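Regression test case RT-17, inverse folding.

Input:
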């Protein structure tokens, strides 16, 4: 008799328990959603702060000064006929042999060789190469002048580290570009000794390297290293002047030299803007000294 009423009371109790549990779930759900929104707002603020910092950093990087020189002259045209006559008097081709380059706006070279063959009295051999490199300003790499300073130091170091070189000497030189160093050494091939002169100079964001060597073959006397060095310096100065002239006198090629970096970048805002492609950073220096072997052919 009382069982139906008891069942109704039990069912009602279960419903009340479930009904009481629903608000707890909803509250918990709202609490969770509220926390999620708060975290999202915090993430947005952090993201905004990072973006702002990144923008400021980008502004600073974008402020790198423009390179002074925007182009290079033709390497085979940088030396006068008189200079070529003095340094390589017996060159078969006074116009020179242009080197290969992946980007002539950034690098180029030209070489000449001369053999004064006096038969049984011996021969005098000379080999000359002029290499030009230009560096553009890049926000991630630095100003063109600073990059040229680094390349200048590398060229000097590479010359000093030439394999099998003897009696290596390096000395700073005044009066050519912002930096200039002459590296000289002896290099023996077979029974002949070649007097090598490597003159490296920097003018603004360009680096000029002149390689000049000579040898007395078949018993002839070795050339005077001092004179070869002066000749290499003369060629380097002409090449540096040619770079300036190609950019319509945008700097002074013979303003004095120093091994300490100077504030060359300050001049950049007064110069023409770059119009060439970005440098591929590959710093190549071919070992063309092997051409000296051709003197015996």
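Golden output:
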């Amino acid at each position: 008799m009382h069982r139906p009423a008891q069942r109704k009371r039990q069912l009602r109790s279960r419903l009340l328990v479930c009904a009481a549990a629903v608000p707890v779930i909803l509250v918990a759900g709202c609490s969770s959603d509220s926390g999620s929104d708060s975290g999202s707002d915090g993430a947005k603020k952090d993201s905004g702060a990072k973006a702002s910092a990144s923008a400021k950093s980008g502004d600073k990087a974008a402020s790198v000064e423009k390179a002074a020189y925007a182009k290079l002259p033709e390497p085979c045209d940088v030396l006068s006929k008189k200079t070529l006559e003095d340094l390589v008097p017996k060159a078969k081709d006074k116009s020179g042999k242009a080197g290969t380059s992946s980007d002539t706006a950034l690098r180029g070279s030209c070489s000449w060789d001369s053999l004064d063959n006096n038969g049984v009295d011996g021969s005098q051999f000379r080999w000359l190469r002029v290499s030009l490199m230009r560096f553009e300003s890049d926000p991630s790499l630095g100003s063109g002048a600073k990059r040229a300073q680094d390349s200048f130091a590398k060229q000097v170091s590479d010359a000093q580290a030439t394999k099998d070189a003897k009696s290596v000497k390096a000395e700073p030189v005044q009066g050519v570009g912002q930096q200039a160093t002459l590296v000289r050494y002896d290099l023996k091939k077979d029974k002949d000794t070649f007097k090598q002169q490597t003159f490296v100079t920097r003018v603004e964001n360009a680096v000029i390297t002149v390689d000049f060597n000579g040898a007395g073959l078949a018993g002839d006397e070795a050339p005077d290293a001092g004179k070869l060095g002066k000749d290499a310096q003369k060629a380097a100065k002409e090449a540096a002047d040619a770079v300036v002239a190609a950019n319509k006198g945008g700097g002074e090629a013979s303003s004095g030299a120093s091994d300490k970096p100077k504030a060359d970048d300050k001049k950049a805002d007064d110069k023409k803007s770059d119009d060439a492609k970005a440098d591929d950073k590959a710093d190549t220096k071919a070992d063309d000294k092997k051409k000296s072997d051709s003197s015996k052919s």
